[in-house]
Structure prediction request, 180 residues.
Amino acid sequence: MWILALILHALYYISPAYCANAFAVFGGGTPVDFRKTWRGGRILGDGKTWRGLAIGVLAGGLFGLMWYSLSQSGPLSLTYYGAFDFKLTDPFFGLYLGMGALLGDMAASFFKRRLGLERGAPLWGVDQLDHVFGALLFAYFLAPSFITPGEFAALLVLTPTIHLIGNQIAYCCHRKKERW
Ligand code: CTP
Ligand code: MG
Prediction:
């Protein structure tokens, strides 16, 4: 029961970051780096666009706002398993997680381009976890509530699996060029 509460609370907390990352695939148009290059390679590449960033951050923010309002009264406000309190205190936590997720994703693209990897080329581990690290880093400094080390460990294991399943869906819906 305790492990289930841990997993549920961790996924509940990180969900705006997943949401931001998933909705970014509806991006397109002008790249964030305006096609500028640095040291012979693109700064970020065509896979990071302003529209994707805006849609993703908005989606994460709204998703967080939804959890926040649901947690103010009703069952979620009463759900409390030891350290796992489902009542949220900050309506903007989803915004921080969403921004962090997509900045983490951009940092990873910057790193990939420096390694000489083309847009969409896989970098296992980094592709699956960049948004979680970015989101948690932002939330750690900006949001009043945070997750426990145990929840963090659970997210490191669960996220790559969820990410891969999500990518199969995005690929099948022609929202992504690669299956990973
Ligand atoms: N996307 C976007 N803007 C963002 C993030 C993502 O438009 N800020 C869209 C792009 O169409 C991108 C797709 O979502 O191709 C999938 O994102 P991701 O896998 O992170 O990008 P990649 O194309 O794999 O590029 P990279 O190699 O830089 O990670
Ligand atoms: Mg990718």
